[in-house]
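Re: the request from the purification team.
They wanted to know what the chain is likely to look like in 3D before they choose a buffer screen. I agreed to run a prediction and write the result into the notebook, where they can find it.
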Amino acid sequence: MKIVIAPDSFKGSVTAKEAALSIEKGIKNTFSEAETVLIPLADGGEGTMENLVSATNGHKIARVVTGPLGKSVEAHFGVLGDNATCIIEMASASGLDLIVPEERDPLRATTYGTGELIKHALDDGYRNFVLAIGGSATNDGGVGMLQALGLEVIDETGKEIGFGGGELKHIDKISTEHFDQRIQESQFLIASDVENPLVGTNGASHVFGPQKGATEEMVLELDKNLIHWANLVETEKNIRLHELPGAGAAGGIGGAFQAFFPSKMERGIDVVINYTKLEEKLQGANLVVTGEGQVDFQTAFGKTPMGVAQMAKEQNIPTIILAGSIGENIQTLYKYGVIGVHSIINRPMSLEQAMEEADHLLEHAAEQVCRTYFL
């Protein structure tokens, strides 16, 4: 029997690799002779760089950059095994997890450090990029990133605006005169499962602002500021970001890439699946086990378990999902090759306890699933 184990991380608890190892233990408890293939995955958010570097035998490079609230942080970019492709995970430099909850403030948070990471990679000679843009703390439309790469964003007094989404209303003009010319010599693949437009009720501020610390009043201000920014971009670049699908990703940085970079956007899980060669590794498998912390109706919109199940279905391989918690309307997953969604929680416990014991819970759940389905 061949079983492919391809989970995402269980956020705040175990990495994708740790989850895969725990699931493998459970399977081996039942089928000691089974062939197991471990493929830790991500969908464009945190962990994407680590997984792709590991899957391709690449390496990471550390750089000190500007964090989301202006303080210096150590961030990393990855170099894949081809030694030509650079992967940058936005969360490493501008991520929500870099800020304690009580200090989260999208009016101040900046993507400047992400731009610095890109600049460091350009300085090192890389011209082929994968950008994983999940997990951001920002709502600045990618303006900070653009400033780090030489875009001049000027207020009425002729000075550069400051950091954060709250500053966008002060922009009087933008100039690409000193924008890093090496960007046009490069290719950027943007890994994101977000199709939201830049502005409006389905835009970056309204949909994602609250989880980044925005109050109702701040959401309205941020959205108004992004409209102002989008108007300027339309005048300068003749590209209308307002309703453009994907422009609202990561607080609007998706729009910045579409307007100023030679780029294309793909579903994050598809990018990871491609680089990890999941399709090839599925061949001859009897079962796929995947999972992540929360599984609900949103899982069908490009999350890791969905991408895995879709590819497994093409080869008529059934998929089982293990979840930390199960939300509403998971039935939609069954038409994509999922044969079961199972919670790893086996008794009453607090969230904190579940997170602490996730490795053991995953092992136990994987064993029980195998016994249920195959013994």
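For the purification team: The radius of gyration is 21 Å.
Please add any questions underneath this entry.
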